[in-house]
């Protein structure tokens, strides 16, 4: 939480833009909820009830909602990208000033690859967090709450049936994240060692050639590169186990909707538009 507060301090000068981006995000969510409702009306009122005079109006509303949603999405993405780039510039400038003030002893103890990774890789990860990371929490909660409300309004029984599958999604995601976290940490460390090896070899290439150490350096670099490769393979192996399960659960949710929803339609307790 302390690190998040420090990051928010860098975002404070762009608070107005950030609030504007958040509002655009929330409006896009609301319009996204309106689109299924309009689709429901087209199916129930136009196709089933054959009120064809409503087709043009509903079609225009559907197209307008989609267009507005796209506009708000564009504004949101542009604002968050703009502010995150500004935050990244401020962070990088401050970090560079900090590095300029360090002693010779500091540079003797700290690997160059680590410093380069902090200046490039780590700051880029922070920029991604400042871009949409912590705002996605608010957007996600708002989207979840509003979606649940709409689902319950459409049909409580079908919604409750789907809610039984949600914990399985959550457990699968949490299990994958728990296993990936230490692996990604090792990937960052392996990347630091890889960057250091390249930098040291390039800057000291005259010494390497003078003492005929090309083969030795090649073997050392190969071992470091192999470690980095293996760490990425480990991460891919973990994802390959959990992602198919998430896709299977998604398919199960579709089966639940079709079977239970279809049964309710047959009993005339649910409209086809609501099912869609």
Task: Kindly describe this structure.
It is built from ten helices and no strands. α2 packs parallel to α5 (112-154), α5 runs antiparallel to α6 (156-163) and α5 (112-154) runs antiparallel to α7. The protein has helices at 2-11, 15-48, 55-100, 104-109, 112-154, 156-163, 166-203, 205-210, 214-266, 272-275. It is 90% helix and 0% strand.
In round numbers, the mean pLDDT is 87
> Which structural class matches the secondary elements?
mainly alpha
Q: Terminal Cα separation, in Å?
A: 42 Å
- Rg result: 27 Å
SS strand fraction: under 5%
Major beta sheet, specifics?
A: none
Helical residues, percent:
over 70%
Show unreliable segments: none
Q: What is the count of β-strands?
A: 0
How many helices in DSSP terms? Answer: 10
Shape by Cα distribution: elongated
Strand and helix order: HHHHHHHHHH
Give the key terms:
single chain; 276 residues; mainly alpha; 0% strand; elongated
Task: Explain briefly what this protein structure is.
The protein is built from 10 helices and no strands. It is mostly helical and 276 residues long. The mean pLDDT is 87.
């Amino acid at each position: 939480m302390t690190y998040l507060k420090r990051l928010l301090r860098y975002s404070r000068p762009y608070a107005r833009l950030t609030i504007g981006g958040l509002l655009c995000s929330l409006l896009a969510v609301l319009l996204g909820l309106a689109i299924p409702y309009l689709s429901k009306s087209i199916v129930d009122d136009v196709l089933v009830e054959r009120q064809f005079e409503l087709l043009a109006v509903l079609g225009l509303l559907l197209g307008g909602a989609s267009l507005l949603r796209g506009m708000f999405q564009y504004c949101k993405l542009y604002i968050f990208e703009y502010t995150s780039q500004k935050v990244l510039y401020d962070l990088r400038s401050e970090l560079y000033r900090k590095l300029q003030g360090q002693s010779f002893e500091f540079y003797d103890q700290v690997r160059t690859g680590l410093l380069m990774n902090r200046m490039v890789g780590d700051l880029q990860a922070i920029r991604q967090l400042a871009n949409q990371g912590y705002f996605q929490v608010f957007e996600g909660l708002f989207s979840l709450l509003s979606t649940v409300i709409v689902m319950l309004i459409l049909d409580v029984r079908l919604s409750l049936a789907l809610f039984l599958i949600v914990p399985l999604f959550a457990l699968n995601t949490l299990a994958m994240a728990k296993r990936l976290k230490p692996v990604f940490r090792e990937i960052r460390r392996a990347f630091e060692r890889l960057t250091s090896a390249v930098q040291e070899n390039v800057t000291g290439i005259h010494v390497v050639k003078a003492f005929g150490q090309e083969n030795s350096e090649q073997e050392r670099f190969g071992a470091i590169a192999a470690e980095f490769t293996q760490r990425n393979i480990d991460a891919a192996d973990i994802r390959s186990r959990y992602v198919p399960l998430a896709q299977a659960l998604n398919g199960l949710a579709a089966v639940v909707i079709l079977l239970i929803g279809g049964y309710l339609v047959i009993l005339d307790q649910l409209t086809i538009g609501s099912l869609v």
